[in-house]
Amino acid sequence: MKLKNIKTYIIALITLFAVSCDNYLETEPQGFISAGSPTAEGAEGLVTAAYAGIGNNDMIGPIASMWVYGSVRSDDAYKGGGGVSDVEPYNFYEQYNLTQPFQSWLAGLPYTWENYYRAISRANSALRTLNELTDEDFDLRQTRIAEARFLRGHSHFMLKVLFKYVPYIDENLSNEEILQTSNREYSNDELWNKIAEDFEFAMNNLPESQSQVGRANKYAAAAYLAKLRLYQAYEQDENNQVVNINQSRLQEVVDLCEMVISSGQYSLQADFGENFTGGYDNGPESVFAIQFSISDGTTSGRLNFETGLNYPHGAPQYGCCGFHQPSQNMVNAFATDASGLPKFETFNDVELSAADITPDGVTVDPRIDHTVGIDGHPYKYRNEDAYIFSNSWVRDPGVYGYFQSMKEQQAADCSCYKKEGPFMGVSKNIDIIRYADVLLMQAEAYIELGQQDMARPLINQVRKRASESTDKTRFADGTAPSNYMISEYDGLNLAWTQDNARKALQWERRLEFALESPRFFDLVRWGIAEPVLNAYLEKEKTRKDFLNEAHFTAGRDEYFPIPQREIDFTKGLYEQNVGY
Q: Which of 150, 438, 151 is nearest to 284 (CA)?
């Protein structure tokens, strides 16, 4: 079953910790059984609460979807909405040079920091109780410890990719010790290893499969550990610049991904769009996902509202709010050449519009119609007239153009969709790791190891699935809205050197995960954020006036500042990130 009714269930079992809105450090989170002693039932409830913690999200202070921090902050998307002043802090993030450490909680970042540490607190509360029990008290004790550590690892990982240097908090720290824990207790590499310990423990102690859908298993832990080691392999100096690619870490990535691949438990969804459509949750491609629910006995269900700002504003089915609009650069990236490959060097020379993306127009990768709302094209796999995307649905085309995001949205008549006031919530899970990611992580490691021939069939698996994912995007008469052309790499249409393989891999990640948010973090990991993003801005400024003052500064903008309120609360114990 899906992990649902979490809040109601937990309240019935335990008294959860109180956490001040002012700072996560003010009160040590304590989960305890009302009878005064640990029990298996109480421990089970606390682990369930820890799962809930990683999905206790909000439109301001997101922790499940990184659309603000990883997509808008990259070359994939504009903030969107009703102009630059609408949720203005997001505009600051998009401009890079306007981000400040002292922005209020409404800016998102301080709240995101708190939300992740609340999730860590829940995991630690579960671990304290589990540590007081024995295997005789609770036969699933070791499994639940591994799950709690997996969840704690996830939150620490996300904090690290956002802020680089963060305090590492485990279940053994007292209130006083937490207040004395610096965000610079560990070096960059040491902090990666501390977080990795949780995933390693989880991998070694979780079963290969779980009876309850949604719980982490051995292979989810292996995939997450592979993801961490891949980030860690790109070694950074104190100015956030990549100075070395660690070959032994890359080999770990290869081996860990192979463990997941050879398990036989996962495969690519038959159609790319199934990953983003209600009714396909926890399918064969989902290695680990944050679980949401609807019609579960609670008032509003356990819905994801983080992406609720991103629906087409003018569409009669929705009515709000037009954020997260695809950039012109990203739309252009879906164009293909005469052999069905990306236009690596020339993709951004021509500014594509809906008039170009037609059955007789430029050739494009089919994933464009799974990702972008385009005038005259079916929206969200619905081909009724009411769901054909219209330029009139766009909120502020004069600022942000006419394209709209689509992956994260659901059709208004989906059983997974609910409107609460002006905002939309959905029960569709958010996949943290898809099987496609496992394939491409292994491919990336092979390429950087100089074994690019091993990477090509992995990349081609992803491209083959894309080429076969054209049924859901069609009009009612069966015709396609775009001129689809995509091919696999055969070593002839592109000489398969290490440089070309690296280029193909990086391009594939962008198209496969477009608007899913990893783009910015990928660029930082590869050490190419500054040249790529400033080249993007140089061209985009000729198209979008609101970006005229935007500039990415290397050695600063790879990470967000530590929220000033956290530095103030710890009386200067936390050290601010470089450049802020």
A: 438
Burial class (CB in 10 A: 0-12, 13-18, 19+), 578: middle
Which stretches of 257-403 are assigned E, i.e. beta strand? 286-290, 323-326, 363-364, 372-373
Nearest to 220 by CA among 228, 402, 349: 228
**For the segment 445-472, what is each residue's pLDDT rounded down to a tens digit?**
999 999 999 999 999 999 999 999 999 9
Q: What is the pLDDT of residues 160-207, one digit of tens each?
A: 999 999 999 999 999 899 999 999 999 999 999 999 999 999 999 999
The encoded tokens of residue 463 equal: 């491209």
C-alpha to C-alpha distances, 147 to 44, 131, 141, 199, 520, nearest whole angstrom: 11, 13, 10, 9, 28
pLDDT digits (tens, 9 = 90+) for 119-172: 999 999 999 999 999 999 999 999 999 999 999 999 999 999 999 999 999 999
- CA 322 vs CA 55, 72, 85, 215, 332: distances in Å: 23, 13, 14, 34, 20
pLDDT band per the 50, 70, 90 thresholds, residue 57: confident
Core vs surface per residue 151-181: b (16+ CB within 10 A) or e? bbbbbbbbbbbbbbbbbbbbbebeeeebbeb
**Which residue matches tokens 């709010």?**
321
d(C-alpha 373, C-alpha 366), whole Å = 13
Burial class (CB in 10 A: 0-12, 13-18, 19+), 212: exposed
Average pLDDT of the residues in 240-253: 98
**What span, in angstroms and rounded, lies between the C-alpha atoms of 156 and 387?**
40
Q: How far apart are CA 231 and CA 222, in angstroms?
A: 14
Whether the link from the prior residue into 320 is cis, omega within 30° of 0, is no
SS3 labels along 197-255: HHHHHHHHHCCCCCCCCCCCCHHHHHHHHHHHHHHHHEEECCCCCEEEECHHHHHHHHH
| CA atoms of 110 and 99, how far apart (whole Å) | 12
Contacts of 136 (CB under 8 A, 6+ apart): none
Judge whether 65 and 57 are in contact, CB under 8 Å. Answer: yes
Choose the weakest-confidence range: 57-71, 372-386, 443-457: 57-71
Backbone angles phi, psi at 95, to 5 degrees: -85, -15
- What pLDDT, on a 0 to 100 scale, did the predictor assign at position 130? 98
Residue 213 has pLDDT above 50, yes or no: yes
Q: Where are the alpha helices (DSSP H) in 54-140?
A: 88-95, 109-132
Both tokens assigned to 148:
């709690």
- Is pLDDT at 20 greater than 60 in this prediction? no
DSSP per-residue string spanning 248-275 = HHHHHHHHHHHHHHHTSS----SSGGGG
pLDDT value for 300: 75
**How many Cβ atoms are within 10 Å of 248's Cβ, its own excluded?**
8
Q: Which long-range contacts (CB under 8 A, 24 or more apart) does 503-506 make?
A: 503/344, 504/342, 504/459, 505/440, 505/443, 505/444, 505/447, 505/455, 505/459
Contacts of 531 (CB under 8 A, 6+ apart): none
pLDDT at 3: 44
| pTM over cut 0.70 | yes
Residue 372 pairs in a beta bridge with 405
